[in-house]
């Protein structure tokens, strides 16, 4: 049953978070007027695929597609929200429209952090970015990737597979901050075997003029390439919420049901939700889905809706290797082997983390993810 | 309606099983098994929900 007061809901954002929220509202019984606003002209797609299969799959450009939406919402695509008035309950759009609401879902996600304003610096965040990069890779240009996180490494892997010479600049060992040193070393070894040149240094700067940009490191090293791509984190798209009091430290803090205020849900990459480590943004695919489901139910059912019960799930594919991880990352120290053995080959591993939680990792090891989740509940 | 699995694409993330455990599950090797392929009514909606959370576009409902 819908709460009587909930007649109009506006979902701002049409990524997987907004899409899932819209469908879950319907599943939860909301049968009122639903509007979805998306700033991209495309229907929702799988963002994780952009830096993986979409860079690789020959002429097949469908690895990112999602089934058509069936939520029956009015979809306003290619339109950007420019403001929110929480007192009058209106979302304003860049085409001048004002959308009144009883409930609103803030799901505008995040964008790539940049190191410069130079057009030479490209990032991979949206579908258009990925398609543009694919087109450039066809000519096998030299590629310089700045950023040693999972995204930078996946892109480097895709560029190498496309036949490009690739150099990757990383602060410290690639992936160490995100995965922990043990796993980072395994992937970095695979990267080098595939021909990746890794340059470790301090913070990188991008300098020069449009058409003639270069990367400069602390020690004076200067690097250039035909394609200069940065993957140095994301920034939540919260500017349109300026003045609402909803934004704290660049994100929208929410309660355990994804609500920032009564009638205002925030889900996906811009939301900081309660975790055992404190309020955190967890910009991952399954995180967006779980947040969106919990928050949409809370809009419809209030406190009767169950709070979010989230356990991080992360995967990556790069340099011919795959990793699936349930639980906190990075994984510090050495693992316990549930299957396989030390040496970096296929294995099923667990780590007991400092906070007492367990992280389970499948490396080149096909396993049902529910079983991986169960491993995190067994003593490590 | 019918659920169609593009098996080479499936990577065993299991989000579909979480969305529609009545219709599909991962076996011990992490391979997806469709317990039902023909779906109608509420089950078709469930199958769509499963397809929609697949990050590698391995499921279609047609």
TrEMBL record, chain A:
Protein keywords: FAD, Flavoprotein, Oxidoreductase
One Gene Ontology CC term in the entry: cytoplasm
Residue ranges annotated for the FAD/NAD(P)-binding domain, each copy included: 8-292
Cofactor(s) the protein requires to work: FAD
Gene3D superfamilies tied to this protein: 3.30.390.30, FAD/NAD(P)-binding domain
Stored Pfam families: Pyr_redox_2 (PF07992)
Entry's Gene Ontology molecular function annotations: oxidoreductase activity, acting on NAD(P)H
InterPro entries noted in UniProt: FAD-oxidoreductase/Apoptosis (IPR050446), FAD/NAD-bd_sf (IPR036188), FAD/NAD-binding_dom (IPR023753), FAD/NAD-linked_Rdtase_dimer_sf (IPR016156)
UniProt superkingdom: Bacteria
Name of the protein this chain belongs to: NAD(P)/FAD-dependent oxidoreductase
UniProt organism field: Streptomyces adustus
From TrEMBL, chain B:
Highest rank taxon of the organism: Bacteria
Pfam assignment, any one: Fer4_15
Keyword Iron annotated: yes
Gene Ontology MF: a single term: 3 iron, 4 sulfur cluster binding
Obligatory cofactor(s): [3Fe-4S] cluster
Entry keyword set: 3Fe-4S, Electron transport, Iron, Iron-sulfur, Metal-binding, Transport
Residue ranges that the Swiss-Prot or TrEMBL entry lists as coiled coil: none
UniProt xrefs under PANTHER family: FERREDOXIN
Name the record gives this protein: Ferredoxin
The species this protein was found in: Streptomyces adustus
């Amino acid at each position: 049953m819908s709460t009587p007061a909930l007649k109009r809901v506006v979902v701002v954002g049409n990524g997987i978070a907004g899409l899932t929220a819209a469908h879950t509202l319907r599943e939860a019984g909301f049968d009122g007027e639903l509007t979805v606003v998306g700033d991209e002209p495309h229907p929702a797609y799988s963002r994780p695929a952009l830096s993986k299969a979409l860079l690789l799959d020959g002429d097949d450009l469908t690895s990112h597609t999602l089934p058509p939406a069936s939520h029956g919402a009015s979809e306003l695509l290619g339109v950007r929200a420019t403001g929110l008035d929480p007192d009058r309950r209106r979302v304003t759009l860049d085409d001048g429209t004002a959308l009144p609401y009883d409930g609103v879902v803030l799901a505008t996600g995040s964008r790539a952090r940049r190191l410069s304003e130079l057009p030479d610096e490209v990032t991979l965040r949206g579908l258009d970015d990925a398609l543009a990069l694919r087109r450039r890779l066809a000519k096998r240009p030299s590629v310089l990737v700045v950023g040693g996180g999972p995204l930078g490494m996946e892109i480097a892997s895709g560029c190498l597979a496309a036949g490009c010479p690739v150099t990757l600049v990383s602060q410290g060992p690639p992936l160490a901050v995100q995965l922990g040193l043990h796993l980072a070393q395994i992937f970095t070894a695979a990267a080098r075997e595939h021909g990746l040149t890794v340059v470790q240094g301090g913070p990188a700067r991008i300098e020069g003029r449009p058409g003639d940009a270069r990367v400069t490191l602390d020690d004076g090293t200067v690097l250039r390439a035909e394609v200069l791509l940065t993957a140095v984190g994301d920034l939540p798209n919260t500017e349109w919420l300026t003045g609402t009091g909803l934004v704290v430290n660049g994100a929208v803090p929410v309660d355990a049901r994804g609500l920032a205020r009564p009638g205002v849900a925030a889900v996906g990459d811009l939301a900081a939700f309660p975790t055992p480590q404190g309020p955190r943004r967890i910009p991952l695919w399954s995180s967006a889905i779980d947040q969106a489901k919990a928050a949409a139910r809370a809009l419809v059912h209030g406190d009767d809706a169950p709070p979010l019960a989230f356990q991080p799930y992360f995967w990556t594919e790069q340099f011919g290797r795959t990793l699936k991880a349930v639980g906190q990352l990075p994984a510090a120290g050495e693992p316990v082997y549930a299957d396989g053995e030390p040496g970096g080959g296929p294995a099923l591993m667990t780590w007991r983390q400092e906070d007492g939680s367990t992280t389970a990792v499948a490396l080149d090891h096909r396993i049902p993810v529910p079983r991986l989740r169960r491993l995190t509940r067994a003593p490590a | 309606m019918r659920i169609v699995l593009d098996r080479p694409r499936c990577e065993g993330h299991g989000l579909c099983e979480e969305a529609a455990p009545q219709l599909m599950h991962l076996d011990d090797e992490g391979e997806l098994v469709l317990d039902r392929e023909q779906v109608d009514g509420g089950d078709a909606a469930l199958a769509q929900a499963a397809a929609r959370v697949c990050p590698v576009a391995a499921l279609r409902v047609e």
